[in-house]
Every structure is written in C-alpha cells, then in structure tokens.
Give the backbone structure.
Amino acid sequence: MRTNHDGYKILPFPRMRRLVINIGRMARHKHMIRRQWVLIIVVTNILLALLAACGQNSSNTGGKNPSPTPTATTGPVTLRAGAASYHTNDTIEVTLMNSSASTIYFQDHLTNCTVIQLQHQVNGKWEIVNQCRLMIATHWHTLDAGQSVAVQLVPTPDRPWVSGLYQATLRYSTSRASGLLTTIFSAGFQVT
C-alpha cells in the first residue's frame, strides 16, 4: 500500500525497530508488575506476622516459665496437699479440715471416685483428672466441726499422673437441704 505523495515517500516502519520498542515497553511493564508483587508479598508477610503474634500476651514459651502456683482458699474449711511436689507414680494426699462450727456436706464420685477433685493445668486452663467413671450413685459425705480427713489419690499403674501443676478442689455445703455449694482449693503443687 505504497502511495506516492508530492515530495515525500511513505515507507513501512522497520520491523527491527518495532521489535526493540515493543521489548522496551514490555520490560517497563514487567518491572511495574514485579514492584506490585513485591509490595503485596511484603504487606502479606507483615499481616501474617501480626496475626501470629495476636493473642500471645506473655513470654511463656513451651512451659519454660510456668504459671504462678495458685494459693489455697482461706476460711473455716480448707484443703491442704501433703507435699509441694510429687512424682508421677506417687500417692497424692489431700487433707480436708473443717474448722467451722458446723458439719459440712460434700459428694464423692470425683477423682478416682473419691470426694476430692484433682485438677491439672494444661495450657493455662484447669482440667479434671481421673474423673470417676463407675456407674454407681453419687453419695453425700459429712465432716463434723473441728474434724479433718486425709484422702489418698493413687495413680493407676497404666495411668500415672502427668507432669505439671496441680490443685485439689472440693465443693461443700453447710446443709444437705441447701443447694448452695462453696468451692475451696488447695495450694498448687507440682508433679514431676
């Protein structure tokens, strides 16, 4: 499609020159795309790092700095662990003391089917240990004023205590007719 005009002639654009220009345009365009992708990747990594840190409110890493040991409930009725630490196959002894002026009432069917509920701290939360699975009725027990009773919690050969922080609990009432139960706790103790 060559047409002659007065004084000049139209020539086709050289293919090599067109190729060089197109390559330059593509290179500039790819460079912009690379910058956008780098920016997206950097922002995504920052957001992921912030989300990973979300909810971590302490420097507690994998049990290196355990939670503080809980203290015992104070009052006229108390629980006391027999030792500050036990081994995984040791018998844990917990003493219930009633220094009040009245008889207290409490139920069994708790840890190892006794009147004591043993709790183990897992990831900052207290979990019940060896809940009674016998299909028997729960019974009410009494402890008169000024009396105490020692309860022995024996691990089974196939289920020793798991290492960690423990506490003992008990719920009692001063009347069998009353539905109001008071919960008491022992001081925390370690199983290693």
